[in-house]
Amino acid sequence: MKRIVNFFTSLKLTVTLLAFAIILVFIGTLAQADEGLYGAQAHYFKQWLVIGANVFGHKIPLLLPGGYLIGTLLLVNLVASHIYRFELSFKKTGIQLAHAGVIVLLVGQLSTDMFSRELIMNFSEGESRNYSDSANEYELVFHSGKTVTAIPEKMLEPNTELEVTNLPFRIRIKQHWHNSNIEFRPPMMANTLAQAANGIAQHFDFSQVENVKTMDERNIPTALLEFRTPAGSLGTWMVSDWAGDPVMAGAVQSSSMKMGPEMAQAIASDLTAPQFITVNGQQYSFTLRPARTIHPFSLTLLKATHTVYPGTDIPKDFRSRVQINNPQTGEQKREVEISMNHPLRYGGYTFYQFQMDAGQLAEQTGRTPSSVLQVVRNPSWLTPYIGCAMVGAGLVIQFLFHLIGFVSKQKKK
Amino acid sequence: MKHPGYSNSLPLIAAALVMLTAGCGRDGVKVYKVDSDDTTVTPPPAAAAPAEMPAAMPSTMPAGLPTPDNSGLPKLKYTVPAGWTEKTATQMRVASFEINEGGKTVDVSVIPLGPMAGTDAANITRWLGQVGQPPVDDAGVQKMAVAVQVGDQPANLYDLSGTSPGSGDKERVIGAILHTDIATWFFKMMGDSDLAEKNKPAFIAFLKSMEFEKIAAPSTMDVNQLPPTHPAIPGVTTGVAAATEDDLPALTVPAGWTPAEPPQFVLIKFNIAGPGDATAAATVSKSGGTLLANLNRWRGQLGQPAITDDDAAKLPTVDVSGVKAVVADFTGTDARTGKPSRLVGVVLPLNGQTWFYKLMGDPALVAQQKDTFTGFVQSAKYPAAK
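ok -> structure tokens follow
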């Protein structure tokens, strides 16, 4: 027991862990070039053990403690030392406060990792949204009446069967691609069989592509599903974020514009035609879309303003005027302006101005101005402030003790 | 020893543990209620594909590709039943009617489609979807089929009822599918269940009254725009001058082969009847394009993947009119009928033209007729090259 206590309270452990942390941050940062931000985060930092690394296009065999392991051990090390080494005395208040501040920082980071969410809210002028979409997580949703059943994309393991309590059918996952491409399937060229017997697969072919690496791209998942009841199969269907996300469907429409606007619209409406099955007289429509977080309030985009420096295309200002309606608190029609560096903090979320399709360009092409807000939910956003304040205050107190001691000693002389 | 810091740190450790456990549960299935408006995918502001579209058909053809060219299809003559209002034909529909009674409506359409029509199972499944019924497979379709006459040709009638997924009203689809050599014809009556029931005899009489009037209207489309694997398009010439009577070879017709009216761009056709309802057909036609493209066109008709030049080079040959002709023998599923099928074909390059002899149909019957067919091909005596 004593040896364990000695190990966890030793300063050597602290130094070793900090050394590993430096190596990990260094390798993890280099690896972002090969693996992309989210890939590197998952591989090195949101990980207990790191096996192998990618640096400058080469695979390096190595074994390192991951970010979770280093953070947890540091926390244990610090807490254990706190418990065993320090004593409660007025003179040591500063040291204790500073260490407690570091603990708050570590726990705050852990909770940020666990609970923070980065979401996107995309709307055109006049539209209201009471939800935000995840930027990199997806879900398979079934919509029946007013009930929505959302299954995270992670659960769509190929060659497995899902049974969800409130759905009267089983879902067999025949194929699942985390990133995919879409191709229109002109009937005159449709010599090969459609990938699924029903729905959008009649008009489109999907294929797997490599997961994206850079931050300005995103994966667009697609899955081939078969619905089954005890009475038999209800057929195979393709579900895809290409169809489930209006933004992607819009992209397909604009990339088809070379075939003419009518054709592009027809292709887009084939893509977004609702897919549904009917079981026991109940209709279930389904799609694969970015994971959605529902808010108890709604935002309406009143005006999106995009100004540029005169005579240039360089953006000067992005600005969204939104109206908040919250039936829970009775707050109605409160107008707020969101702009660069002036986010809106509301209901536990922070809304940052992110992207915009407004101004001259939108006007010229006849598009309704739209705005994209980055929505961040981080319940522990205050912990870094509190932690730093504690560390700062602790150091000041410690310094003052020493100063007072020094001054009084000098006086005695 | 007293551990004074312990009481301070305990809440932190507890909080960390709570977070760890809470973090684990966040990826499960979520169920929640919404205002229905918030979750529907908003389609772009265009009408969805009309309900009568056959399965493999988008609402419009992409530019650069030919729109369905019905000019190569026979014109229809029919008797319009009393109480049916004729509507203007559209790009898809060669005939269209509406029946109105007591505020209820039934829509009747006639749509011909080429090789892209899809299988019967796919089309019946699509119709079933329109009345909120689960899909069927080939066996299910065969069970549902009732024999009916479209003009003087046998076809299958399907009577499907259920409720409209959109409105929840009782809905009925009574439809007939007729396969001909150049197109699949969809005759469909859809709408209010009772009114459709009342008009079913009139619909069957309408089918019976159908006459296919042959017209000759060669299209000017350049098939070279199409990929080599492209199936034949009705009403489209193949870039080779149409054969005239004096081009035709003299052939010895085997016993049991019944001469039949050749469809457009087929020069000669024979029907062969086998035991039971087994049928096959032998045709002679002339076409352009490479050997491989034409072999793969045949393979496409049987739902088979394309072969390569190397594969084609391995095919056996037969001597016809002193020329080596390639013999193909493919088995698969007829893309038009969904039935197992075998195709024996002879490709004969002669005087700068390519002649295609094809025997296709029930596999057992084709096996039995293969030697007869080869003899038929070898009996060909071509007029001397000009």
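Chain B touches chain A through 68 residues (CB under 8 Å).
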